[in-house]
Amino acid sequence: MNVPAWEIGRVLGIPIRIHASWFLVFVFVTWSLATGYLPGALPGLSESRYWGMGAVAALLLFLSVLLHELGHSYVAQRYRIPIGQITLFLFGGIAQMRKEPPSPKAEFFIAMAGPLVSFALGLCCLGLAMAAESLPLPSGGQGFVVLGGLLGIVNVQLGLFNLIPGFPLDGGRALRAGLWAWGNNFHRATSQAALIGLGFGVLLAGLGAVLLGGAISGTLEQSTASNGGWLMFIGAFLFGAAWSTRKQVTLRITLSATAVRDVMIRAVVTVAPHLAVQTVVDEFFVAYGYGGFPVADEREIVGLISVEDVQAVPQGLWSWRTVRDVMRPASPELFIPPDWSIMQAMERMVQTGWDRLVVVEQGQPLGLITRSAIAQFLQLHKG
User: Fold this and answer.
1) Phi, psi of 289 (to 5 degrees)
2) Residues 199-240: pLDDT tens digits?
3) How far apart are the first and last CA of the chain?
């Protein structure tokens, strides 16, 4: 199911997006603060004041989550890892790294950057709140002390929670770095860290069920019911994320162990650069149904023409434009050897933007590896 997300700005060149589920948790956090925490900490205020303060506190809490993710992103960029986007959603936030860390050291520092930002924010807020409390405050100033204390405690809790050594939490990523350095196998380390993540997911969900059951039966205070529900929710999320990671690792191992020659399209159909675009559409794109063709000039691959290249030309000009006019000229990145793994081919496609690569051996084209062929391979092996 595709759930919408909206870009709200950019920081460090990274798009910041808000997932639709964020609004649900924003309303819930605001409601819980306005009806529970704030009336207890600041009695005697109006209901609208509590709701306003609750909304401000919820926004500041999510700003803290964003800074946590920016901590990861900043260090990742220092290791030349591009960040696609940061998304705030139901369970906090996630920074989308476009490739894996180059070394265990990089993985460890990237993982630890987020909790360190959270701890720094937490200690700063708590220190400011304690300093303000020792001073004579004007009317209404106590609200800033309460909000500062709340932000401080939540940031410290955020940092501690993320240090749980279960993948994909930050502690689990740090654990993966250690296992990677010890065993010198990235995929096995990821699988082991995800297995521990499964265990912590079950543990958190079980603890939440105990708290919720105790509240329902009356053996525990009713206030523990919401805590139990959240723990069950978080435990289920952690279990699902760890389970998905283990499946992805299995698939990545398959992709790394499978050579391009085993998946490539062997019947290479090329087009000549002097042909009119209209001719290529009628005799190649329509006839074969492929999304693109290598362009060959006397057996030498000189470019690639795709459906997107054709669509960029007004249809009225198809008879007047040639393939050479609209094709993407060949570059060394277009060619790969047949003994490369599918994973290497995928990484090349991501880096260059090519949706198909020419497989060559001793200067002669052997076949094509395409995104659609890889997608079909993934579909057959996803189970």
Assistant:
1) 80, 15
2) 888 898 888 888 888 877 777 776 677 677 778 878 887 888
3) 19
